[in-house]
Design goal:
mainly alpha, transmembrane, membrane, transmembrane helix
Length: about 120
């Protein structure tokens, strides 16, 4: 893979990751909105229901979204090291400068200008 191909794949991965992170945060904001509505409509139940809504509903869904977002790079085979299965979407500047995987140190980019 060349540096240009690597940059293209990293850009695609980062765009998809941005959307997934936004979708991971959305349930927490939705739960916050529902808790606000409950607090406004029924102040007596708000002390009991608001934390339940926030942490029993919104928080687990948000965590699942973060786990899914963290695995985004697996959808891009070009961003997985062929030698150690390490994530090549992180430490972009090191990978471009050396052409090597930051995890195992083996060559992952093929370009004549790397390392000179």
């Amino acid at each position: 893979m060349t540096v240009a191909e690597y940059n293209t794949e990293v850009s695609r991965c980062q765009r998809q990751l941005s959307w997934r992170m936004a979708c991971a945060l959305a349930p927490m904001f939705a739960a916050l909105g529902v808790a606000g509505i409950v607090r406004y409509n029924n102040p007596d139940l708000a002390d009991i229901l608001a934390p339940i809504i926030m942490f029993a509903v919104g928080f687990p869904i948000m965590l699942l979204g973060f786990v899914r977002a963290d695995r985004t790079y697996r959808n891009f085979p070009a961003l997985v090291c062929p030698h150690c299965d390490g994530n090549l979407s992180r430490m972009k500047s090191v990978i471009i400068a050396t052409g090597n995987c930051p995890n195992c140190g083996r060559r992952v980019l093929v370009d004549s200008s790397i390392g000179t």
